[in-house]
Design brief:
Layout lengths: L14 H5 L14 H46 L7 H20 L21 H35 L6 H17 L2 H27 L4 H17 L1
């Protein structure tokens, strides 16, 4: 390198140096020190980004879980009746037996006293497919309600996390760090990430029960629902 030639060095223009003057000597850890003011501003930007993204996702998850729970409940109300005896059907069968006996008497034929089509005192055993449908939809409803409850709780946690009391920058930075450590300790971000997975499990359980529900009615329709369910799971 030729002698006498100055070496150019990059000049770093730190914006915080201009906005936050240097602390007087011995005041580097004072309540209004520059380090605390810088920390509070940087933490505010970081928290706004973190909480903003999480809050939007939780709002969508909460609305979807509420609507889905209402849909599952409407289906469950109908199929839960299959777990107990249908007394209207039982009455119709007994009336049919009585009508057969009366027609035989009118015709003058011999009436053979036989066992009725159904005995009201017999223990009712629901079909296995009805038990499975109700079980799948109950678990699906419970998981969706858990997601909704967790979303509400997490939103409250985040709202509380963003509320900072008035005070010196040192006090605010200590409170923020304490809350952030609690956020990491309780794995709040992991909980937020798990909510969509739990919601997908709830959806899969519902569609599995819907497939079983259509088997006694229309087998091709049950195959269609099952195929679409498997395809959506594979795409996810």
């Amino acid at each position: 390198m030729p002698e006498g030639r100055a070496i150019s060095r990059p000049v770093f223009n730190d914006d915080y140096v201009a906005r936050f003057p240097e602390d007087p000597y011995g005041q580097e850890t004072a309540p209004n020190a520059r380090a605390y003011r810088v920390y509070v501003e940087e933490a505010a930007a970081f928290d706004e980004n973190l909480v903003g993204q999480s809050r939007d996702g939780l709002d969508v998850m909460l609305v979807f879980a509420g609507l889905f729970s209402a849909v599952v409940t409407s289906f469950l109300v109908q199929v839960s009746q299959n777990l107990q005896a249908d007394f209207s059907e039982m009455s119709a069968l007994l009336l049919h037996d009585l009508l057969v006996v009366q027609l035989a008497i009118v015709d003058g034929g011999t009436v053979n006293v036989t066992t009725p089509s159904i005995n009201p005192v017999d223990k009712f055993d629901p079909d296995a497919i009805n038990v499975w449908i109700n079980g799948l939809w109950v678990v699906s409803l419970v998981t969706s309600l858990v997601v909704a409850l967790a979303a509400v709780l997490v939103k409250q946690w985040l709202h509380r996390y963003m509320m900072f009391p008035s005070g010196t920058p040192r006090l605010r930075s200590h409170i923020r760090q304490f809350r952030f450590m609690g956020l990491e300790k309780w794995r709040v971000r992991i909980i937020i990430g798990m909510l969509p997975i739990i919601m997908h499990i709830s959806l899969m359980l519902f569609f599995a029960g819907l497939t079983l529900f259509f088997i006694p009615l229309r087998v091709p329709l049950a195959w269609t629902v099952g195929t679409l369910t498997c395809s959506s799971r594979w795409l996810n």
